[in-house]
Amino acid sequence: MTGFERNRSIFANKDALSESYQPDELEERDEEIADYMDALQPIVDGWEPNNIFLYGNTGVGKTAVTEYLLRMLEADVEAYDDVALSVLTLNCNTLTSSYQVAIAMVNALRDPGDELSATGYPQQTVFTKLYSELEALGGTVLVVLDEIDSIGDRDELLYELPRARANGYLEQTSVGVIGISNDLQFRDQLDPRVQDTLCERELQFPPYEAPELANILASRAKIALTDDACADGVLNLCAALAARDSGSARQALDLLRLAGETAESADAEAIEEHHVEDARHKLNAERVEEGMRELTVHGKLVLLAVVSKEAQQKTPCRGRDVYEEYQRVCDSATTSPLVQRSVNNHLADLRMFGILKATENRSGSRGNYHSYELNVPFRSALEAMGDALPLAETIEQIRKYAKRNNVL
Ligand code: ADP
Ligand code: MG
């Protein structure tokens, strides 16, 4: 056995590829940054802040740009004695209602030991406590609610908070809310009165295209990787794969990091394109596993039905055919099947998770219907199913079909 030895052949600073790293410079977002700065300008001018609603798919720089601009704003308003700015940032991804968000905000503003318990108050009481914490701060308070879409339709706080001053709850404090959403539909399902106030300024971040991702990767690679750690074409490949799939910088950076780890553990001198391909495969498998953890047992059985159709080379196939296969799968699991409408809902969820892909077909008089197929590699899906369902025999059977049909 040999001891530990530092390995710095690929990574110079791996932390620069981690989720929590805050880049000093942001690439390719000049226009969005200009609009964002414009929306924040009233704070610098000493007026009431705008409420801002920022949306875009995951990984398009919403959080990074917001953090970057607010750091800059906080530093720059130091120059003006009549501006007292506080920023309160909250990630709402585990909070599923206005109530929970309000409790979390109160607790972020209170000293440790003085926190509210998570339940047991009427909602309006929590809001009142929140107003008194905000009022104690005075000046301008920017409240950043990141991943706000997780509160769903329990959005009362988004109505109340921007109106707190007009409604007489606040005198010393002006509140501006920045709501950030990964879900493009969230805005449309908000109560129209909430839309009116919260979306005073709307900013949209589009997905990145391949050349943009290539620049983002290049500037990050300079910090994160050693010189010559990347073979030609590697950054472009990561950028192209991520652009084709999601347009997410996070996905592109994850690919590069994982490809680097793969190269490192293979003792390669540099990251090659095949390391990127391996990394993509691993990330896909992770995505399926992550999506699958969210699925109910029947969600998993519906997915297994599609996997089974794919093993027989019978995809894309209609919902009806998936349903028949699903009934067979339920049979082998000695579980009673759900009705077809519920299975259709599961198919819609699987699409949303990116595990399935659907194409719409027109069939004249009978209207349109969808055809489903896997949107992830067959092998990843089958492996994930093997871990998630106690159906060894059925899965072995599917594996055999797949081998016979050269799907595997
Ligand atoms: P979102 O909040 O939209 O899901 P993030 O802001 O978290 O996305 O960005 C995902 C990752 O990509 C982060 O590591 C971030 O630093 C990086 N990133 C996103 N956009 C840029 C950019 N324009 N320039 C440099 N890095 C970026
Ligand atoms: Mg984010």
UniProtKB/TrEMBL annotation:
Residues 303-385 form the Cdc6 C-terminal domain. Pfam families: AAA_22, Cdc6_lid, WHD_Cdc6. Residues 48-200 form the AAA+ ATPase domain. It comes from the Archaea. ATP binds at residues 60-64, 208, 220. Transmembrane segments: none annotated. CDD domains: AAA (cd00009), Cdc6_C (cd08768). Keywords: ATP-binding, DNA replication, Nucleotide-binding. The keyword Nucleotide-binding applies. Involved in regulation of DNA replication. HAMAP family: ORC1_type_DNA_replic_protein. Belongs to the CDC6/cdc18 family. This is ORC1-type DNA replication protein. It comes from Haloarcula saliterrae. The lineage of its organism: Archaea, Methanobacteriati, Methanobacteriota, Stenosarchaea group, Halobacteria.
